[in-house]
Structure formats: structure tokens, C-alpha cells
Amino acid sequence: xxxxxxxxxxxxxxxxxxxxxxxxxxxxxxxxxxxxxxxxxxxxxxxxxxxxxxxxxxxxxxxxxxxxxxxxxxxxxxxxxxxxxxxxxxxxxxxxxxxxxxxxxxxxxxxxxxxxxxxxxxxxxxxxxxxxxxxxxxxxxxxxxxxxxxxxxxxxxxxxxxxxxxxxxxxxxxxxxxxxxxxxxxxxxxxxxxxxxxxxxxxxxxxxxxxxxxxxxxxxxxxxxxxxxxxxxxxxxxxxxxxxxxxxxxxxxxxxxxxxxxxxxxxxxxxxxxxxxxxxxxxxxxxxxxxxxxxxxxxxxxxxx
Length: 305
Description:
By secondary structure, the protein is α/β, with parallel strands linked by helices. The protein has one domain (5-299): Rossmann fold (3-Layer(aba) Sandwich), CATH 3.40.50.1820. It is 33% helix and 19% strand. The protein contains nine helices and eight strands. Helix 4 (120-133) packs across helix 5. The longest helix has 17 residues, at 283-299. The protein is globular and about 50 Å long. The chain starts with a helix and ends in a 6-residue tail after the last helix.
């Protein structure tokens, strides 16, 4: 494997966040160490939205300053392999994006497998999207999704569900290392069995829990890589990491979107690994963070501009 020098130097100090060798409860406790720094005081508030499984806790980051006109809305979906993580992991990111984009940013604390397998997480994300798009200060024509890892899979699934079954229009989607393919048969998934922060054994357990109790064919809203029709989906910015089991399914999904006539910007960051952006001081991580803000700013631009 080819490593970015700054990332390689930090590898020995990385927390062990693999889930495959532990039960989920212990993995969730360990995952607390990976949470992002707390946002500035007052930058993020808690709320709840009605969902099909009961109230969904959300974190809300409003744009800075008084709102005198409608603003864009951004739904941020955290990662964690469908079994770990929480909205709190993305609180600082939400505050940063709200300030940089002048947007209202919402992060749902969606339900986790195995206690709540598919479609619980997707239902909760859909409920949060409905709530965000209906906010009076939000321009419903400028609502975007930003998902990381399992959150990227949920973002891709949510765009498919909205297209097929209705819901608030999504104008743009950021799919950051999206987890979209339960078949686990890409070259990168076969090759990367012992990579930092995510590996094939983690993916196997993730999908086993997420699809628990689901018999028959796997729906495209669970594993979007199974979709054969990607036409009519919103423009996308797809990020993949060179040394990541999820790399090739992200590349394939981006290619499928392009083949279906969807506008896609695709960036493979060299020398990186899954979630290596948590090493925020590395130049490659800073470059990715700046690029994400830039593409979201363009994706959320009013249509007349």
C-alpha cells in the first residue's frame, strides 16, 4: 500500500476502531474516543423530530448571525458501519459547515443495528430530511445531503427513495467513502483485510447486522450499488480513499451515476485510508476539507446563479 507520509507517521497513534473482533456494545464504547472535538458553545442545539419509530434526536447548527432571507439546508449523516457512531461525532463538522456555507445544518441521531436493522436508520434520516426542508428559514430548492461511510450509503439510499416515492427535493449529494454494496466483491474489498479504521471483516459484520432478519432480495434502498437505474438523481461529489475497502464500490457508484446522466465530481485522495480525515492536521485532510466546502457551496448556490 502507498501511504501519505504525514498519515503514515500518525498510524501508530490511531485508536483501534475496528468492530469485527468485538461485540457491538464494546465497540460503541471504544468509538467514543474517535469523536470529533466539541463545537463552539451555542453553535449547535438539540431538538427532536417525529419519526416512524418515535422521536428522532437531531443536532441543529444554524447559520451565523441573523437570518434575513431563506438559507440552504444541509443534512449530515454520520458514519459508523450502521452499528456505531452518533450525531455528536459530527457536531463540530455541522457547526463548521453552517458557518462556512451560511446554511442550516441538521445531523440526525438515527437508530443503529443490530437492535434496529434496515430500514430504521433510513426511516429516521428521511424524517429528518422532511423536517429540515419544511423549516421556514430553509429554501426547499437548496437542500443537500452529506454522508460519510455508512452515512454516505444512507445519503445515496435516501436520494433513491425520494426519487421513487416522493419527498423533499435534494439538490446535491456528498458521498464520502459511501458504504453501498453488501456483496463485498470489489477488488479493494477483497484486498484490504487489515487496513486502519475499516477492513473487510468490519464490513462483513456491518452488513450482517444492518440486514439482520431481512430475507429475500436486498432492496436498493439498503444497498444502493444494487440499483440498476440511477437516472434522475441529484448531482454528486464522491470521495474515495486509496487504501480503503470501500474505495471501489464508491468508484463504481460514481461511474453508475455518470452513465445514467448524473453530474458527478469524483476525487480519490492518494495515500489515504478510511476516515483518515480525522487526522485533520495532515495536508491531504485539509485539502479534502476545503474542497468539500467548495463543492457544497457550488451545489447549494441559488439556481438563478
